[in-house]
């Protein structure tokens, strides 16, 4: 594991992850839960966001208030399942820009296959907050972060709801400089690379495929 790992084991996060895991939870509820968990995790993952002074007037008096610096962070969604988390982070940081990285796991090899990248031109100068609910082998996240670094991005945070110990070790090996925030660490991966006990396939469950 890594010094850069934070497990956000807040009771609300744990409770909502348990509801997510339940195989009876339908897509519409699943998406709502992922969005809420992403919001709760964002609270912790954005603790070091930069603030600047802004002069304002309250109804009572002038004051120098602290507001988010511009430009704000870039939110990076690893498709598809990252999109379910993205909405939650955007709820809290509506002025953020968004990048989409298309990556899927080859079902046989479990290697990450990258198929698209779309983001704003100034990503290298900004904090990039990457979201994907699942960190199993970590191949997908590792590939996404390598893609960002190859485009000059240096300030990165990764937020995942569920992780396997195998994925945490691989992630720490590949990107020891990137702070990683997870909601829970499960027991292990099975022979097909699924997290046990996990929650199944996050993309399929979120989007009903
Ligand atoms: C899922 C998930 C992660 C990846 C995690 O995506 O959203 O991106 O698997 O597994 P890994 O850590 O072993 O790489 P998937 O490949 O199912 O793509 P999808 O979201 O498009 O369905
Ligand atoms: N991707 C998922 O969606 N679920 C897992 O358990 C592993 C990878």
Indicate the mean pLDDT: 96
Q: In the CATH classification, which architecture applies?
A: 3-Layer(aba) Sandwich
What distance lies between the first and last C-alpha atoms, to the nearest angstrom? 33 Å
Largest sheet: 8 strands, mixed
Structural class: alpha/beta
SSE layout:
Elements: E1 5-7, H1 11-21, H2 27-45, E2 51-57, E3 62-68, E4 74-79, H3 82-92, E5 97-105, E6 112-118, E7 128-131, E8 134-135, H4 139-150, E9 156-163, H5 165-174, E10 180-185, E11 188-189, E12 195-196, H6 202-207
Parallel strand pairs: 1-10, 4-5, 4-7, 7-9, 8-9, 9-10
Antiparallel strand pairs: 2-3, 5-6, 11-12
Helix pairs in contact: 1-2, 2-3
Explain the overall architecture.
This protein is an alpha/beta fold. It has one domain (5-50, 69-207): 3-Layer(aba) Sandwich (Rossmann fold). It is 33% helix and 30% strand. The chain contains 6 helices and 12 strands. The strands form 3 sheets. Strands 1, 4, 5, 6, 7, 8, 9 and 10 form an 8-stranded mixed β-sheet that branches. A two-stranded antiparallel sheet has the order 2-3. Helix 3 links the parallel strand 4 and strand 5. Helix 2 packs across helix 3. The longest helix is centred in the first third of the chain and has 19 residues, at 27-45. The radius of gyration is 17 Å and the shape is globular. Residues 134, 136, 193-195, 198, 201-203 line the site of uracil (URA).
């Amino acid at each position: 594991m890594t010094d850069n790992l934070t497990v956000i084991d807040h009771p609300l996060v744990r409770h909502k992850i348990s509801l997510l895991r339940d195989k009876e939870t339908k897509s519409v509820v699943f998406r709502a839960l992922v969005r809420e968990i992403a919001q709760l995790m964002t609270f912790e993952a954005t603790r070091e966001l930069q603030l600047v002074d802004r002069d304002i007037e309250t109804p009572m008096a002038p004051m120098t208030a602290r507001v988010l610096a511009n430009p704000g962070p870039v939110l990076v969604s690893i498709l598809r399942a990252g999109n379910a988390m993205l909405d939650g982070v955007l709820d809290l940081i509506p002025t953020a820009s968004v990048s989409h990285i298309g990556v899927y796991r080859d079902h046989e090899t479990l290697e990450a296959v990258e198929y698209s990248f779309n983001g704003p031109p100034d990503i290298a100068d900004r904090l990039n907050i990457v979201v994907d609910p699942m960190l199993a082998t970590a191949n997908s996240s590792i590939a996404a972060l390598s893609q960002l670094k190859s485009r000059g991005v240096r300030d990165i945070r990764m937020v995942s709801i569920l992780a396997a110990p195998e994925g945490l070790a691989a992630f720490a090996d590949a990107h020891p400089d990137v702070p990683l925030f997870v909601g829970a660490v499960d027991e292990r991966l099975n022979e097909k690379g699924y997290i046990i006990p996990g929650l199944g396939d996050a993309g399929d469950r979120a989007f009903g495929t």
